[in-house]
Amino acid sequence: MAGHGAQQHPHGADRLCEAGDRVYSRAVRRGRVPRGDADPVPCLLELALLHPDPDDMDFLVPTAPQEVMTRLLRGMYDEVSESHRRVGSAVAAFERYAGLGGPVRVPAAGAEGAAIRVLDGLARIQAAMDEATQVCTTEVLTVQPGGIRREHELSEGLPRALALRARGVRMRDLYTHVARHGQGLLNYMELMGEAVEARTLDEVIDRLILFDRTVAFIPANADHTMALELRHPALVEYLVTVFERQWRLAIPLSAALPDTGIEGISHREQSIAALLADGHQDAVIAERLGISVRTCRAHIARLSETLGAASRTQLGVRIAQAGLDGPPRAVGAAVVRVPGARGPGSPTAR
Length: 350
Known about the structure:
The chain is an alpha+beta fold. 43% of the residues lie in helices and 15% in strands. It has helices at 18-30, 43-46, 65-98, 122-135, 151-166, 183-192, 233-249, 267-277, 282-289, 293-307, 312-321, and strands at residues 33-34, 50-53, 56-62, 116-120, 139-144, 170-176, 196-201, 208-211, 215-219, 226-230, 251-252. The chain starts with 17 loop residues before the first helix and ends in a 29-residue tail after the last helix. Pfam families: GerE (PF00196).
């Protein structure tokens, strides 16, 4: 199923892709279909339109169309109700504000010293970042999600980093564990020397850059073409606290990741298992860990093989039995064996 996830099938049960419609229709007519028929259309499993036949795991049975329709209508009703509630709340609030009277002072969009400033467009973001870099004197804290850092991203930020190092500014960077596999990051760290310290976590918060604990930059939209420049002391201090807490939990880039202590399970697969246990979809897990959906599903397949699970439902049970349904942690030198799991020869990727 690798490579055919949510990115290739961005739809809901009410607007199936052509291939998904054919397979689901066939399942409804025949009562079940071979599991292999669903390989090109994982959307049917992700949308719970097909599920394993408890009598024969090599087949998938359809969710009744009536049940699917009930689910869709309930979701639409909830969305409409929520929209009505939000509109009503907004109208009531603005009517109340309008009744207060008196002039309202609106600061100019480019006013200097504004506690919160919206930066619209990459050029404005870059200019604000350059300005903050020029006046920074002591410390820069950054959080860089998204997995392996691309070469052009590191090259773009290198002039600012070198300018900071020349002035004796210390830098601390947080990345996901996946970033350890990028040669560009390792080259960058070697070039910067002791001026930069980096640590990694399974997953980090969204992008964050803090200068001298007085100004912070965070994304303002999903594609990062807008940002917020924050200078309000309480907001900046809050973000510093968030950073420091993640920093204490993170592992230095120079240190190896801890062994899981569970035979055949890598650190990354332990993280994936915990997120699966929380009910997250493959695409969400991939985004949070900074890996592709294809890679995520390959790890899930290895988890299933190692734990001896024949279905996603059984995999959930095996994950709980192995104690993998909590945060990743090292469990010492002892090797944990799971009922039904494969032997030491099971393949795994670290």
